[in-house]
Amino acid sequence: MRAVPIFLSVLLLAYAGASHAALGGAPEQFNSTEPTTVAAGVTSAGANYVTRETTLASGTRVREYVSAGGLVFAVTWAGPILPDLKALLGKYFDTMVAESAKAPRAGRSSLAVNLPEVVINSGGHMRAFEGNAWLPAELPAGFTAADLH
Questions:
Q1: Closest to 36 in 3D by CA, of 51, 15, 53, 14
Q2: How far lies 3's CA from each of 8, 94, 102, 109, 114, in Å?
Q3: Which CA distances in Å does 58 have to 1, 15, 18, 52, 83?
Q4: Which residues, in sequence order, are bridge partners of residue 79?
Q5: What is residue 126's predicted lDDT score, i.e. its pLDDT?
Q6: Is 12 helix (H, G, I), strand (E, B) or coil?
Q7: What does the pLDDT read at residue 11?
Q8: Taking the CA of residue 37 as centre, how many other CA atoms within 13 Å lie in the half-sphere pointing to its CB?
Q9: Run of H or E including 128
Q10: Going by C-beta distance under 8 Å and a sequence separation of 6 or more, which residues neighbour residue 19?
Q11: Is 85 exposed, middle or buried (0-12, 13-18, 19+ CB in 10 A)?
Q12: In which residue ranges of the chain is pLDDT below 70?
């Protein structure tokens, strides 16, 4: 029997978690049965996007970047437990899984997907996960990946 990489195992566990905004869609409400703290504000870039940060009961922080048109064009996460990446990445979750299957299996604790339609970076270890994902074609004028934090 072939061993399943630890990273993919963690992803499958994260699949069963709470709902989050889907990349490429409208911001969604987090699972109301899980205590969360939400803070939203206009960024220094003005009105071309806003950020919405949610701290889950697990202590994991999820930040959504929402365009003026209401589209989630980027998300970041950091904390002790991976958020529900299937819900967070929406239709791009399958892309992440497919690209992950192509990567070498030994010693892998991070994942990087760099495609024209989506960029996904995820890594870390128990109690210290972090990552980000964005849609290059949907970034507002003047916004770069370096603006994700």
A1: 53
A2: 11, 21, 15, 15, 26
A3: 33, 15, 11, 18, 9
A4: 129
A5: 83
A6: helix
A7: 33
A8: 6
A9: strand 128-134
A10: 28, 29, 30, 31, 84, 87
A11: buried
A12: 1-21, 28-47, 105-108
pLDDT of res. 17 = 36
* Cα distances (angstroms) measured from residue 87 to each of 82, 83, 106: 12, 9, 27
- For residues 122 and 85, the answer to whether their CB atoms sit within 8 Å is yes
User: Could you tell me the pTM of the whole model?
Assistant: 0.76
The pLDDT tens digits of the residues spanning 85-121 come to: 998 999 999 999 998 888 776 555 788 999 999 999 9
DSSP string, 86-120: HHHHGGGHHHHHHHHHHS--TT--EEEEE-SS-EE
Give the pLDDT of residue 19. 39
Quick one: tokens of 23? 């990349």
Q: What is the DSSP string of 21-85?
A: PPTTS---PPPTTS-EEEEEEEETTEEEEEEEEEEETTS-EEEEEEETTS-EEEEEEEESS---H
Q: What 3-state DSSP class applies to 137?
A: helix
Residue type, 30: F
